[in-house]
TrEMBL record:
GO molecular function: DNA-binding transcription factor activity; sequence-specific DNA binding
Name this polypeptide is given: Helix-turn-helix domain-containing protein
PANTHER family membership: ARAC-FAMILY TRANSCRIPTIONAL REGULATOR, TRANSCRIPTIONAL REGULATORY PROTEIN
Stretches assigned to the HTH araC/xylS-type domain: 225-323
Gene Ontology BP term (one): positive regulation of metabolic process
Keywords per UniProt: DNA-binding, Transcription, Transcription regulation
Classification via InterPro entries: Class_I_gatase-like, DJ-1/PfpI, Homeodomain-like_sf, HTH_AraC, HTH_AraC-typ_CS, INH-QAR, Tscrpt_reg_AraC-type_HTH
Length: 325
């Protein structure tokens, strides 16, 4: 029997707390009931808060805690799970200095830690992710990179595992995180049964199909913002690096350096992403052929563009349309 401690704090996402507790508590149980077998529990769970009092989640629900994370009686855990920050991230970090300090001391041998979505900001604030690979919600990835430059941020990944720390991506990725952690502790067969019982698609590995280019605008470089605005209306044209530098009022060398610092991408990669983003919108909302959409976003060769879409979204254009239209 493994002990899982889920951390509660005000403005957390309630479903990321109650949902992952459900998965752990019902691993080995629900499937057995479906099959008419005797249930076998693998996990005991507890919700821990700073003083053992209730936490008020972002949706207004108040959850009763099982104890305090700072109490000797609850010190022994096999796994600590930090749920999604549902409210404004920076205020929540500033309101929880004791939790950040406590987390910073939890990097003990044999102890595993996990975060869901923006919960990774609490692990990052505690210094637990420095030099490690981590993921978070794609929409906050640039903010994460800016705040934690020593962390290897992989926003395209749904789950990252680096040493004893696992991180999951966007809000409902606790499904995937829970199934992964159940497999890690209880084995692949129990995890498969859990996924079947809860009708969870356990094969997801990427949150790239859901991401938006807007995240790349989380910066304060006015010259780069000016260029991004220009590219919004000219992405389908033949755009050279020299033309982009002229529009930004920079030399090519300065453009490359500043664009990378502001967005995490080179200007040409960003242009590719912009074209893919527009193609995605058209695949979702129009009946135009893939060949037509390819030309409308600035490409001529359908095959190469299809490979580009697959590289950035994990799906071919036809598969993307089938899923999201």
């Amino acid at each position: 029997m493994y002990t899982v401690s889920v951390i509660g704090f005000d403005s957390a996402l309630a479903s990321a707390i109650t949902g992952i507790i459900d998965l752990f508590r019902l691993a080995g149980v629900t499937w057995a009931r479906i099959q008419g077998d005797s249930p076998q529990s693998f996990f005991q769970t507890r919700l821990l808060t700073r003083d053992g009092g209730p936490c008020r989640c972002i949706n207004g629900l108040t959850l009763l805690a099982d104890g305090s994370w700072n109490s000797p009686e609850t010190a022994q855990s096999d796994l600590i799970v930090v749920p999604t920050i549902g409210g404004p991230i920076v205020p929540v970090l500033e309101q929880n200095p004791e939790l950040v300090t406590w987390l910073s001391h939890q990097n003990k041998e044999g102890l595993q830690l996990a975060s869901n979505c923006t919960g990774a900001f609490l692990l990052g604030e505690a210094g637990l992710l420095n030099g490690r690979e981590a993921t978070t919600h794609w929409g906050f990835s640039n903010q994460f990179r800016t705040r934690f430059p020593s962390v290897i941020c992989r926003p395209e990944k749904l789950i990252t595992v680096d040493g004893p720390i696992a991180c999951a991506g966007g809000g409902m990725a606790w499904w995937d995180l829970g199934v992964y952690l159940v497999e890690r502790y209880a084995g692949p067969e129990v995890a498969r049964q859990l996924a079947k019982s809860f009708v969870i698609d356990a094969g997801r590995t990427s949150q790239a199909p859901y991401s938006a280019l807007q995240a790349k605008r989380y910066h304060d470089d006015a010259a780069i913002t000016k260029l991004q605005d220009w590219l919004d209306g000219n992405y389908a044209a033949r755009v050279t690096l020299e033309r982009m530098a002229d529009e930004a009022g920079l030399t090519c060398r300065s453009l490359m350096r500043r664009f990378k610092a502001a967005t995490g991408d080179s200007p040409t990669t960003y242009l590719q992403l912009l074209r893919v983003e527009e193609a995605r919108r058209r695949l979702e909302s129009s009946t135009a052929t893939i060949e037509t959409i390819t030309r409308e976003v600035g490409y001529e060769d359908v095959s190469s563009f299809s490979r580009l879409v697959r590289r950035h979204t994990g799906l071919s254009p036809s598969d993307y349309r089938a899923r999201f239209r």
